[in-house]
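Posting here for the record, re: glycine.
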Amino acid sequence: MSETTTLTVDLGDRSYPIYIGQNLLNQADILKRHIPGKNALIVSNETVAPLYLNKVESLLSGIRFESVILPDGEQYKNLDVLNTIFDALLTHRMDRNTTIIALGGGVVGDMAGFAAACYQRGVHLIQIPTTLLSQVDSSVGGKTGVNHPLGKNMIGAFYQPLAVIADTSTLNTLDDRQLSAGLAEVIKYGLIKDADFFDWIDRNMDALLQRDPEALAYAIKVSCQTKANVVAADERESGQRALLNLGHTFGHAIETGMGYGEWLHGEAVGAGMCMAAKMSQLLGWIDQTQVDKTITIMQHAKLPTTAPDAITEQQFLDLMSVDKKVLDGVLRLVLLKRIGDAVVTKDYTREQLAASIRNSYST
Ligand code: NAD
Ligand code: GLY
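Prediction output follows.
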């Protein structure tokens, strides 16, 4: 059996481990040591449950467990579907010492996490992420929530899990489009903080796309370590955690504007990071070479690099004005000073933002 890496998100008495390795869902002791009580509710969806629910259930001997299966898709990440988790918790008389186990990608993780934050004012949570995107990003750091028709992830809570168990073997059943979507968030860590990692991703893109286990394990490890460091320093995003949103203000506008589920989150973030690079160039912060490098790596990862024609410049501006980085009516953007160094800024004009959006369409 290959080696398991354990990282820590250092949050004092709320610190927790991230386990990364192959076949972790064959090891009962890892999951069970993090379940404090006698009750558990597994939250999964109709795609992931047939693949992995039995495996997780078989790890829970001695625990009373039930499961709830959500419909699959970003369009179901809403308050109505969230309520089905509360229905299950109440129907099965789950008490305050219950552990909610999120088994799936970022949609399941965000919804199960939010349910854990709210049910009886907070029950235990364990994340078992099964997509690349959720293994490198969404399962770590405690952002939970659902979408609103007017804005992505607008209803939610910060709520940390007791553990994250990333079984990299689950990535074998993921389709290629979802793998690419996950790579967008991996590239993000290189762009915002780590030029060497960006170069490593560039050199190893073929291995990553071919799911070479060593390349994937390294990418997940570095990504989780970067995220763990940022979250430990700024759990509730009063400062540097906002850097993790590079490309997201543009990307969330694409997801909301196109209709949830039309573009994958990672695809929207990929195009959004190219838009952020162009905006950084327009402000004179980076040159054409750095913009080209950003677009090329996204192309290699098989991600979109331009804004969808279906969303007009005005729609972009309107949708972006609902971003969570709007403070006192001013939208702060995450932009690049260079590859490996991002900043949060309000030093731009509306005209510059509009011009940059105009320059981001393919035609
Ligand atoms: P997802 O949860 O929709 O999963 C993608 C698809 O893959 C789904 O169809 C899912 O059923 C399927 N799937 C999952 N695991 C599988 C497996 N092992 N084999 C086969 N199919 C599998 O999407 P995602 O990309 O994982 O997550 C995107 C969501 O995460 C968005 O809602 C986004 O807002 C959120 N997000 C949250 C954070 C955070 O910090 N909380 C960070 C980034 C993204
Ligand atoms: N994905 C952004 C964050 O966790 O802060």
